[in-house]
Amino acid sequence: MGIAIVTGASSGIGEAFIKLIAGEDYEKIWVIARREDKLLALAEAYGKEKIVPVSADLTDPSSIDIISRKLSEEKPVIELLINCAGMGKRGTVEDNSLEDITDTIELNCVALTRLTKVCIPYMITEGRTFKTGPRILNIASSAAFLPQPGFNVYAASKAYVESFSRALQFELRKHNIGVTTVCPGPVKTGFLKKATDNKAGEFTGIRALCAADPDKLAKASYKACKRGRGLYVYKISQKALHVASKIIPSAWILWVEKVTMKQF
Ligand SMILES: NC(=O)c1ccc[n+]([C@@H]2O[C@H](COP(=O)([O-])OP(=O)(O)OC[C@H]3O[C@@H](n4cnc5c(N)ncnc54)[C@H](OP(=O)(O)O)[C@@H]3O)[C@@H](O)[C@H]2O)c1
Fold it and tell me: Structure pTM?
């Protein structure tokens, strides 16, 4: 038995992961996000002895230092790390604030990388096979497949997550640690509302048709992660987009994106 660490646990997909793994054989689950009340509610719902709330703003580099210190004091075995915290702001680079742009990169790329780095030593254990070894599950997005005018920094940050995680999969194989990169398309969470500063609450048009349920996504991703899958693109619509992004000239797709960029 070891512990699980989940970022972005206070809502949406991260919360769905907590619901899913609360009954699994983890000694403790460290739940990380800023909203402490939400984390305390998780402890209330799933057991205070199991759920360990860690309230932290991951855009602040010192937050990873605090988590790193907690790890070196407690020296747990980490069985599962889920990097789910993420943000994005709709709009062009010209229009978005410098703070939003910086926070997106700090949270989606820097914090994810630094947290992974400080967790790896606690995942390396003797006598494990790949089948039963520890797991890292990183939430990227189908936004990683192509540049996105109007959601530029977010898509670029997720391309980083995909590239980083897929290479990490090969780097950590020798320790029997599995790394799964999950690429969902639109998911029905509060993400869109925050991304549009409350201008849009729900996906419309084609995005509404392929929007995923967070609980189903968490369940399928966790299964893929346990199986040691490297890349998991969720839903047939996103698989099609993934294939299209490899074979259709990106300039054509970018043109379509530019035409549709005002739609959510
Ligand atoms: N929803 C979608 O359509 C969609 C599609 C593809 C990929 N994704 C990805 O899925 C992941 C989860 O998003 P979601 O859809 O579940 O949205 P969400 O409900 O907005 O969840 C975002 C999570 O990240 C945490 N977070 C945000 N800023 C943070 C910060 N500065 N420090 C620490 N934690 C922070 C939030 O907690 P606090 O606010 O309490 O800090 C929350 O728990 C993200 O990486 C997102 O990019 C989402």
Answer: 0.96
